[in-house]
Amino acid sequence: MATPTPTPGIHHVTCIAGDPQENLDFWVETLGLRLAKRSINQDDPSTYHFFFTDAEGTPGTSMTFFPWENLSRGKVGTGQVSRTAFRVPEGSLDYWEDRFDEYGVDYDDRIERFGETVLPFRDPDGLPVELVEVAIPDDDPTVPWTEFVPEEAAIRGFHSVTLWVADPDPTMDLLETMGFEEAGTEQAQGDMAGDERTRFAASGPVGKYVDVLPTIESSRQGHGTVHHVAFQTPTDEDQESMRNAVQSAGLRPTPQIDRHWFRSVYFREFGGVLFELATNGPGYASDEPLDDLGGRLVLPGKFEARREQIEAGLTDVTIPRAESVEADD
């Protein structure tokens, strides 16, 4: 089997939400991310697809959501991404705890993991999320979005995802095939206390870690769960080489699918987690000026001809703006 081009790390994480306005308010105003793209689920155009990123939609910063209002609450368990962690600058967790208190966010005590300080919390749908303090280098590729949160505390893309799988070994072998290297093990804390957490590291600066934990905890997809995690395969050639390697490992990746802002390949890894391989281009600024990202409902390709019908079926939402929030105070 030919060795594929190693992935630099996570490209995006896509989750399931409930109320679209509540989702927008939390991820834009409370957490301070930019709504870089407001679109639809291309496989189910009756629901939105929101993309929350840094200031420029840098690969490795996109937390995206399908607000399926009619679904019930999900249950995090085996075969899922159980935790999504973001990087924040060193010394900023005091700011975040104060902000969570102000906004009524459900959060837990800080923990230490692999020598880093982690602040676990949940979004309004119960999705488990974490902030991890790290040193942000001067040449970091992410660009902080500062409409609601100051630069010294702003989220700077992904830190890691944690995978819960029943049998970790095949998943860990796959991660090594994808270019991750084992970076250490330690005893898990919290709800998986006593189990061994194994960390894998990619080569890139953002979203470089994947942690694997064994569990047979039952799972159910719904509000507050992760739908899939996407890994960067920056070019079509990188993606094709990774697709071939995944297929040679015994998995069944889809053909390449054009998602308008990137091109994608999907497959379920051995533990049941839905993985995506995503190119870095053409990017979120390919169909909107950078200054206007997220300002309008973008309907890619064939969906534009159905705009009137699609808009009529979507819930009206208002994008939080700092000036509007200040005026209401």
UniProtKB/TrEMBL annotation:
Residue stretches making up the VOC domain: 9-134, 157-280
Family annotation (Gene3D superfamilies): 2,3-Dihydroxybiphenyl 1,2-Dioxygenase, domain 1 (3.10.180.10)
Protein's name according to its UniProt entry: Diguanylate cyclase
